[in-house]
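Exercise 3.2. Students should predict the tertiary structure of the chain below and write it as structure tokens, then compare their answer with the key that follows.

Predict this chain's 3D structure.
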Amino acid sequence: MNSTFDMVAKTFQGLEAVLADELRALGAEDVAPGKRMVSFRGDLALMYRANMCCRTALRILKPFLTFEAADADRLYAAAKAFDWSTVLRVDQSFVIDTTVFGDDFRNSQFVTYRIKDAIVDWFRDHDPEERRPRVGVEGADIYINVHIAGEHVTLSLDSSGESLHRRGWRTAQTEAPINEVLAAGILLIAGYDGSTPLVDPMCGSGTFAIEGAMIAAGINPGVYRKHFAFENWPDFDAELLESVYNDDSRERTPEFPIVAADINANAIEIARRNARSAGVERYITFERRPIADWTEAPRPAGILVTNPPYGRRIGADDMYELYRTIGTKLKHVFTGYKCWVIGYKDEYFHEIGLAPSEKIAVNNGGLDCELREYVIFEGNKKEFRAAGGKLKKERPAAPAKAPRGPRRESRETPGARFDKAFRRDAERSDRFPRRDGDKPFRRDAERPDRFPRHDGDKPEERRARSPRGEQSSSGRPVSVGRQPSISADKEIIINRPAWRARKNKNQSSDDNTQS
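Answer key:
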């Protein structure tokens, strides 16, 4: 029986759930999505299949050493105590990739140097001739991944080597192409499986169309790779890899059209060359067509996925008009489609003029972008929903609230409630220190300028005693209606925005009078 071990698959933000589904489909156990990663368990064959078949994985890591370290000396000592001959030979080269989160270690390059020193010193201490493996930046034999979260250190072997997004089919590219792993992940999020038409009206170098054709044809993304890092490991099984590589049981011929179009003729030529390199050119229809010239979409309705310019490295003469055109074509040409657009600026998204049914945060080329879905239904909304259509994901029902018991009567006396309110006001006054000469905060009964109310007075009699324009003993003008609880120069105590605005207005009026 083959032994199993823990593994970690790295991916992009927003693709964790998709990658977890891929791993489960391959037979992985204990699958647990995390932040930009998915942990799982499996055997050697599963590790080979994960590298060969996962469309949304960047790397497949195999942890081999964990320990706690709060400083560089402990980090070095714990790393040097490991038997490095189990993962690395003296005649091989190695490279270290480090990721650090925490306050104890803030410089990933420094951590890399300390781990490298520990490995080199271990070999020098255990080799009769004091030989040591060499450090290689590119094309190294062994890839070591170091991950530090706080004081928890994990060392892993990187079974992939070069990032898995570098499929091997790309021969040329346009400016700012979308990452292959991200493109495949978006297609899987959109639910594309080859059973509907696929359209990218702004295809660039053709990444969406090519990854879509590979999905529709059941072609594993790893078949274009010439080498994986695990082929240099001591336990490498060449026959097992050969069987995984030659497994074409899921390959098929796509039945629905895949259309890639762009306004740039050079982009179309580059996309066509890339598709030829991937062996899927015969499955894709390439067209030089601006988005404004679309008048008809492939039928039956399918999925549209596109990555329009963001206005940074690639732009249009009028970005707002471009996105308005996208919205117009989605509404009037791609009826019945589920349209997915990845973008960078909200103001451009707003020009599309459609309410998205879903928003997913993604990172594309170092930019924090957003993937939005627009469901373009045929007919009216009532008919669409009556047929079972949904514009937005259903939110889980809120848990039922427990029935409230009988209301309890307060046992506080009026005097006790008054004392509690008085103490609260006193505490509030203590939070705002008074300046020299300020009087303490007082309750309504102690306000010096408040006119006492005479029982039986009529409103007109009270107004007669306090005519507009008359001044009180403190020199403030008397006005009809509710007065502020305290003077304007003390208003900071209770911080009432409305009275502050009035104070500022009065101050500006006084300044104008003085000038």
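Discussion points: The first strand starts at residue 5 and ends at 10. The chain has 14 helices and 15 strands.
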